Amino acid sequence: MERTVLHVEEIVKDFDGVRAVDGISFDVERGEILGFLGPNGAGKTTSMRMVLGILRPDRGAIRSGIGPESGTIAKDTTGYLPEERGLYDDCGVLDTLCYFGELKGLPRAEAARRAEEWLERFDLAAWRRSRIEKLSKGMQQKVQFAAAVLHTPDLLVLDEPFSGLDPLNQDFVKATIRELRDAGTAILLSSHQMNLVEEMCDRILLIHRGRRVLYGNLADIKTRHGEHVARVRFEGDADALARIDGIADLRLDGDRASFRLTQALSPDAFLRALPDSITVLELSVSAPPLHDIFVRTIGGGSDEAL
Amino acid sequence: MKLSRIVRWEFVHAVRSKQFLLMTVLIPGIVAVAILGASSAGAFSGSGSSGPSTPPPPFLIALFLAVILFMGSFISGVMTMYGVVREKQSRVVEIVLSSVSPFEMMTGKILGLGMAGLLQVIAWSATAYYVASRFLPTSLASLALVHWLTYPIYFVLGYLFIASLYASVGAVMKDVQSGGATGLVGLIPYAPIAFTKFIIENPDALAVRIAGFLPPFTPAVMMLRIGAVPMLSEGTRFVPAWEIALSLASLALGVFFMMRFAARVFEVGMLMYGKSASLRELWRWGRRGAS
Asked: Does residue A189 sit at the B interface (CB-CB below 8 Å)?
């Protein structure tokens, strides 16, 4: 069975002469969550709309790795949770879910059965006959989520799936997304919440001004781009610590020190470089948070931010 | 099939709304009860049976149908337009377009809301007929087979044409307040109404015959011609069958192209939030589709 569900090759999209997406390529594989990051206006939503067949790319190709023909992605095999919620306010919860399910090709009875199942799961069964406008924001969010996954899509595109959810529901949606991944769904997840991306994603794609800036395994990217953060509690000669090559932003506070390990100094090299005049009492070296990589790549990267 | 599902959804959605109930049942009902009540109280005494005893000629019925057609399609057109704008604002459109093609979505909307509008038109016509029959010798006896055969087709096709036209205008509107020059496009099919007298008196004039083949004008012009020609010639002449056939074919083709035009405009315009398009952009998008 082909592992890659979605191939995106060099897609380009212009709006009124302004290039929104400029030659982005990536793959999403079965059973993985690809984190899709970028500052506002980077072209994320446009890219997602092209992947879903809502917009056509001006150039480039979007191909499906599964199904009988591997031309464009069949709309019945994709699910979409847009960032701005889209539901019919004046329609019933169950009716709306059935309708969206049927639009994805499910027979009516099957759509109804699955809708009931998801409502049960999301603790919304009591609201099935209510009009959507009567629901709280978090509940609407869960209904929207159910609409995106009702037809068990092969490719699921989630745009800010956690916004508007309380911590309990956030955990619940997280668990559901992981379950879908384990069942083999290919998931493209876009979010500005870096800690969540870090927690959920195996690989990331970072775009800026319509171009791909970072792409690949999250751990690899961290080793490649990141500068580790170290914290030490020690006794001895603080100056000796400061003299180690490759240490930056050293901050001393009594017997504690915190600093960055620049690219030139790997954690391993740092350990070996520790001078004998220092007795280490506590030590932690951790990979840089995704947040830092994002800020450094986008902010300090290419050219001035607008 | 997904298209039929969209049609059903839009139809049910429209028919369930309070405005629809008001417009379809309540208002015609109140009007009928009021007029009939007034008449039985003697307000119109004397006018009941003193009118001409001949049934109204077909062209009058044609005129009536043309007016109803425009009122009805205007309302369902506006319903489609608002529906499109609202869906755009609530972003439902993204979910729907990630499931079906813009053509399916647009056609489904036009057909579903068109059916709801037709239901409304039927309710009004029945009320109007019932009320009128109390005062005038209303009868459909003067309608020949040709009228029975052609009027419904012109009516339904004309209806779809106008509704699609409005839908494409709605697809480029930012909100229901903004329309500007683009909104005027929706008035084009109403032009023949202004020339009713000329058409009825000169149903065979070259300009009238040509207008009968131009889709936006076909329904009104042809229904009036088909009504007027036999009357002026005292039943010796009818509009030639080939002219009827050609006008119907051109109208059907017109409906198809209008729906496709609407779908294309929709495809480009739908996702352009926050700005209304100009007339020129509307034309450009409709012709070329998403660029």
From this structure: no
